[in-house]
Amino acid sequence: MVIASIDLKDGHVVQLKNGKDLVLQRDDADALIADFDKYGEVAVIDLDQALRHTDEKGNTKNTELLKHLLRHGNVRVGGGIRDVKKARELISLGAEKVIVGSAAWNPSPKAGESVLNTAFLEELVAAIGKQRVIISVDAINGKIAVKGWTETVDIPLIDGAREAEKYCSELLFTCVEKEGCMQGTDMDSCRALREAVSCRVVAAGGVNSLEQIVELEKLGCDVQLGMALYTGKVSLKDSFIGCLNFEKVDGMIPVIAQSPAGEVLMMGYSNKEAFEKSFETGKLSFFSRTRNKLWTKGETSGHFLELVKMRVDCDRDTVLATVIPHGGVCHTGSFTCFGSEPDAKSTLERLYGTISERFANPRPGSYTATLDAKRVREKVMEEAEELTDDAESKDEVIWEAADLLYFVSVLMYKEGVTWQDVYNELDRRHKEK
Length: 433
Hints:
The protein has helices at about 30-35, 45-50, 65-70, 85-90, 120-130, 155-165, 185-195, 210-220, 225-230, 235-240, 270-280, 350-360, 375-390, 395-415, 420-430; strands at about 1-10, 10-15, 20-25, 40-45, 75-80, 95-100, 135, 140, 145, 150-155, 170-175, 200-205, 220-225, 255-260, 265-270, 285-290, 295, 305-310, 320-325. The radius of gyration is 24 Å and the shape is globular. The chain contains 15 helices and 19 strands. The longest helix has 21 residues, at about 395-415. Helices cover about 35% and strands about 25% of the residues. The mean pLDDT is about 90.
């Protein structure tokens, strides 16, 4: 699968040729990560940090933008991570994994010494866990490249990779000579690397076509993509669909729909056309085997599933779609196809789904549908005051808290904020402590 890359330099999103020459620059990082995260993980790389262009506090012109992006997707972060404290800070801010480059290597190993900086890597694994560590095995002419690709050390790529996988969950291989050149990557090195190690391998540098992405997928390598995305040579939609294993499942991929809170809502089957329609419309679509036609959930009821993102399983033959339900998901009217309405547990997500359905399909006498932006804010203030000033017994606190949560949920819906967004912020704060 494809991992989209957002490279930062001087506060801008950039793409460089061979890691040096500026090819393009843009300032729409928020829009980029919102789009990229629909299809898979996103790599955010601080190039200035890698080159040590920092102030006295160790920050770069990219620091605040990087921290902002960490809260907006499944993000791995790299660039100049040289100590455990920095790695732990990035994890606490929302990074799922950290990419370690120069600091992982012993630049001049003596006889009998490891090619790796084992003291640092052991401390890092103890602090954040092996599963959160990615080690860069970037190479120039078959030798490991360090210091923002400005130098190489006398460590052969394959030898270094075999040692590095002891301390990480995956390896990121960039063929530096091919980086940004749009001439295809070094397939022989990717093949040799894949055969040499058992951990996950991500290839980067020069990949310029859907065909090469699919070829790397068949080798068992994921792809980290930059230039080809920004220049329009490759689309994430086509890459996502192209890497799915349709042959294994006779052209029909099972798609499990879940709410942002992780509640399983329904399951259906999608072919290539259904996936294309889901991404193009932003509403989850399937292929009906009984009716032999494409269908979009909610096209008759109005109870559609707003697509947030899709993630594929390790075998590439099942997809998990995170969606925001607008109304009941099941044809019975239930919130989920895996439980009847009377037995359904009340949750903030279920409340949010009911509120969204009331606005999408107003019913006669629906109080929710009458609430405009001004009125709902007034009600939040009113209910908060009643909870803090008037509620004295346990039952009164429960009653007023329920009222307040209802109006807060309406306000959040109107502002496009989900409960998962709030959970993510609470999780970020927890990790900071």
